[in-house]
Amino acid sequence: MTQPIPTIRPYKGRGAASNPEGRFESTRAVAEDDGWYREEDDHRPQTETREELARSVITRNDSPDIGFDQAINPFRGCEHGCVYCYARPSHAYLNLSPGMDFETKLFAKSNLAEILRGELAKKNYVCKPINIGSNTDPYQPIEKRWRLTRSALALLSDCHHPCTIVTKNALIERDIDLLASMAERNLVQVFISINSLDNKLASKLEPRASAPHRRLQAVKTLHDAGVPVGVLVAPIIPALNEKDLEGIIERVAAHGANSIGYTCIRLPHELKQLFREWLDVHYPDRASHVMSLIQQMNGGKDYDSTFATRMRGQGIFADVIRKRVQVACRKAGLHRAWDTWLDTSRFVPPRIHSPQGELF
Predict the structure, then answer these.
(1) φ and ψ at 192, to 5 degrees?
(2) 259 within 8 A of 336, measured Cβ to Cβ
């Protein structure tokens, strides 16, 4: 008697429940029951990190709904495994899956500091704040070994170059010495991402990121060290984590945050399938309701890429969230994220190392 191929089950400590082909693949793998299937222990994919020699590291954007013009990302892929991550589809450009591959097959730009030095030293370079971590988290677990984010911070500090940082990992506390020095010169603003106060939910949504209470502690630690720190409530997922909205804003204000930003969940490209699978695995009782609300916020679709609405959504539910954020921020005395001014006037271009030395 043959047994059916099992339904999708979660991998322990991982976000994605499958590893579908990327949108650029020319072939598709389809599972078929040949009668030989037997129940076995789930395979636990291991994290693999490959070295990448980057040719350039500063990326630029002119999107009207993003609060910075240029950014650097020390890593491709992210071990945090956040199932909602809008960066997952970018792994398809590497001929890898936005699913499990995104959180297990990582790339470290080992020459990051060297290339960044060269780009900052160009005669036509115009100093503007650089965001660190616009796509993948700069303090994900592999940063402990590679220390690429720290090397970039050290260079920016030496050049008096301003930057912003986005992370959901308490590992950022390791670099408080650099951050405090930059804060004294008004060169840095940190943003910690916290979208839930529920540890059980967070362990499913963001399996390898720091727990919510640990991120709150990081906010306080940074604030006590004189480093300006804001919080991004991102993403807000209707009928899942939006219940914690006011609680997060109240708690982070008490821990020293100076600003709040928020976004609603976005599901571009392959992320639609991955998130639906995740809902079916972890919250089957409310999966259809969550997707219905997401579609209501996106003009009836799973995702609407229009600049004016892609970050915050549209419709009644989106308006309710916006008003809730406004009221909670007013009570907590917090201003809007990305409104902080950083000093660009101190910037001194770095010197390029030369085997011939320097005369002056």
Answers:
(1) -100, 130
(2) yes
Confidence of residue 2 (pLDDT cuts 50, 70, 90): very low
Q: How far apart are CA 120 and CA 73, in angstroms?
A: 15
Of 240, 237, 206, nearest to 103 (Cα)?
206
Where would I find the beta strands (DSSP E) of the chain? 48-52, 59-60, 70-72, 75-76, 105-109, 130-132, 163-167, 188-193, 229-236, 259-264, 335-336
What's the CA dihedral at 296, 300, 303, 309 to 10 degrees?
-60
In this structure, is the dihedral angle defined by the CA atoms of residues 74, 76, 79 and 84, taken in order, positive or negative?
positive
pTM: 0.91
Which residue pairs from 323-332 have beta carbons closer than 8 angstroms and sit at least 24 positions apart in sequence?
324/245, 324/246, 325/233, 325/245, 325/249, 325/260, 325/262, 328/245, 328/246, 328/249, 328/250, 328/260, 329/249, 329/260, 331/250, 332/249, 332/250, 332/252, 332/253, 332/260
Is the pLDDT at 179 greater than 70, yes or no? yes
According to DSSP, residue 338 is labeled: T
The SS3 assignment for 38 reads coil
CA distance 68 to 189: 12
Determine the Cα–Cα distance for residues 45 and 261; give it in Å rounded to an integer: 34
Alpha helices in 255-297 (DSSP H): 271-282, 287-296
DSSP state of 134: S
Nearest to 265 by CA among 282, 279, 251, 285: 279
